[in-house]
Amino acid sequence: MTDQVLDVKGLNCPLPILRAKKALKDVPTGGTLQVLATDPGAVKDFEAFCRTTGNELLESKAEGNVFSFLIKRTS
Amino acid sequence: MSKEKTNNVKRMSMIVSKGSLDWAYPPFILATTAAAMGLEVTMFFTFYGLTLLKKKLNLHVSTLGNPAMEMPMFGMHIGMPNLVSAIPGVDAAATMMMKNLIKKKGVASIEELRAMAVESDIKMIACQMTMDLFEYKKDDIIDGPEIGGAATYIEIASKSDINLFI
């Protein structure tokens, strides 16, 4: 299950990534963070963010105008 | 952080040479994002870029000599010929329009991004020569940046994986 949810709807690059990074600090290792965003650029950016930081992108999906990313903190 | 990890970490450095509202974005966006992705980041502020370290920011855009700048207006994109840019008030209006768009589109303000840069331990260096040249005192700029010169930057750049000039 999702440990924490971060709502960055309406925010533009690079705020979704910066806010997510901050929120991940409060997620225990192995826990997950769900990010809700409306910035279409966030789709590729969260993939790159997770690849570079070593965190795991468990899920990336779109529901209407809202993108949802499920990130597992591994580092 | 262990010594081993410090050696493995990727580094990015950038020279920030421009201080208008539009040009302030790329360095602060890239620096804060790189820091969020785990890179060690250094920003070297020189010439007009140095003004981005002033305590109180009052940033502007100029349409003058900026032929690619188009604003979305009346359902189209409108550029500004240089002759119009020279009219008093045009740059102020363009700046206001840009700031309104920034707010409306959920884009961070430069003040916000700069605060995040400080918060994420990005190393900032203010160019000593520029401070002398334009007569800025250490007291004019925010707390945190160190003062340095070209050699200080080159030493850091020579150990960085990414070096940008903006």
Account of the 3D structure:
The complex is a heterodimer of chains A (75) and B (166). With 75 residues, chain A is α+β, with helices and mostly antiparallel strands. Chain A has 2 helices and 4 strands. Chain A has a 4-stranded mixed beta sheet, covered by helices on one side. In chain A, strand 1 (4-8), helix 1 (15-24) and strand 2 (32-37) form a beta-alpha-beta unit. Chain B is α/β, with parallel strands linked by helices. Chain B has 7 helices and 7 strands, in the order αβαβββαααβαβαβ. In chain B, the strands form 2 sheets. Chain B has a 5-stranded parallel beta sheet, with helices on both faces. A two-stranded antiparallel ribbon of chain B has the order 3-4. The radius of gyration of chain B is 18 Å and the shape is globular. Residues 1-5 of chain B have low confidence and may be disordered. The interface between A and B is medium-sized, with 15 and 11 residues.
What's the alpha carbon Rg of chain B, rounded to whole Å? 18 Å
- Mean pLDDT level of chain B: 92
How many β-strand runs of chain A? 4
Question: What is the CATH homologous superfamily assignment of the domain at 10-57 and 110-165 in chain B?
Answer: DsrEFH-like
What key attributes describe this structure?
heterodimer; A: 75 residues; alpha+beta; Translation Initiation Factor IF3; four-stranded mixed beta sheet; 29% helix; B: 166 residues; alpha/beta; Hypothetical Protein Ychn, Chain: A; five-stranded parallel beta sheet; 7 strands; 18% strand; globular
Short description:
The complex is a heterodimer of chains A (75) and B (166). The mean pLDDT of chain A is 95.
Write the layout of secondary structure elements.
The complex is a heterodimer of chains A (75) and B (166).
Chain A: E1 4-8, H1 15-24, E2 32-37, H2 42-53, E3 56-63, E4 66-72
Parallel strand pairs in A: 1-2
Antiparallel strand pairs in A: 2-4, 3-4
Chain B: H1 3-8, E1 11-16, H2 21-36, E2 40-45, E3 71-73, E4 76-78, H3 82-85, H4 90-104, H5 110-119, E5 123-127, H6 128-133, E6 146-148, H7 150-157, E7 162-165
Parallel strand pairs in B: 1-2, 1-7, 2-5, 5-6
Antiparallel strand pairs in B: 3-4
Helix pairs in contact in B: 2-5
